[in-house]
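Before the break, one more example. Copy the sequence into your notebook; we will annotate it together after we see the structure.
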Amino acid sequence: MRIVLGLHAFAGFAGTESYTLTVAEELQQLGHEVLVAARETGPIADVARSRGIDVVEGPGALPAVCDAVLAQDASSALDLAAAFPAARRLHVVHSDYFALQAPSQGAGACDGVVVLNDRVRRFVEALASHPPVTRLRQPVDLKRFGVGGGARERARTALVLGNYLRGPALDRVVEACRGAGLEPVVSGIHTTPETSVEDAIARADVVIGLGRCAVEAMAGRRAAYVYGLGGGDGWVTASTYGAFEADGFGGAATGDVIDDARLRTDLAAWEAGMGAVNRQLAEPHDAARHAQDLVAALEAVGTPSSPPGDAGELARLARLEWRSWSRYVGALDEQRALREQLETLHARHAELFAQAQTQAARAADLAAEAVRVAGERDVAEAAVQLAERQRQEALDALDAEHARLEAFRATRRYRLAGRLVAPWDRLRGRR
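Here is what the structure looks like once it is written out:
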């Protein structure tokens, strides 16, 4: 079959894009002629081309005909329905949150829906209108993951993997890792993009994330801890796998609230055998099997439905909504960045204010010490002056006494007395 995989953006390394790349490779392995069509392309498209996958950007590069379509969102489903009305068309729904990935409510956009977990299946089946639903599992290339990096006896590194956990929430996870004795490594679009996620997983002992991140960690023979911005469930084990997989490893399978203390305690409870068990649990997620199931689902489609007459216009409106959503998300990111900058400035202001208060208190202490020293200096100077006056007075008194003595010596009485006692003095000297 000639199969076109369509999605609005095939640019960054995110869940839908990684799924598309994985499926495209496996369908090509089965001998099908595969083409990825997107309105926007980027680094992951370059990786796809390097692996032999044809990628085109924009409707003008589409082939004239194809046999089957695998759309990943509403706008590409409508665009490809208008371009290939005779093709069998499936819509792979990846989210119950992002409305632009939900199947169009207009009849004829696709002939079937593929979901990858029970949570999204419940969402699709609750829609007012939907075609038949096929439930598959999140696929992962078992030939690519798990071939490098042996298990260690003691966990040293935790890979925090994903595109949504950031800011204070990410900081708490990083601190919990360190509290559990693990060195955190953060990877994602907004932190450190990773083009070879299998290598990043091979270098880690623990992987923390949601969705495909958990499945890829399991395939990579690593302990997987389900936790992220949307919540958390804890370790993937043989007993928890069923509930976690049904929820798409989205962190809402148990309803548990994982606070910082529990996160730190859980991570410290890592066991060396977790990775080996997870590899066995990942076997049903084999991308080769998933591709075979997709081919079967496409072949099961009877006569393709007629696309809506206004499919092109509906696709244009969906793209406009996608652009509005992107601007909204961009505004949120900018607001978050500005808030973080403001919080940093507030923290710096508080730090500088505290330093100023400390310096002011020190200056006050120095001033008080200066006053005390100055007071002691004044007292010392007064004492010196008093001593000087007393010394001078003593000298003056001595001079006066000397003058009186000299005056007495000059009297006739003193001279007469001297002559009278002179013989006595000479006699005493001889004795």
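The chain has a mean pLDDT of 87. The radius of gyration is 44 Å. Try to locate both features in your own notes.
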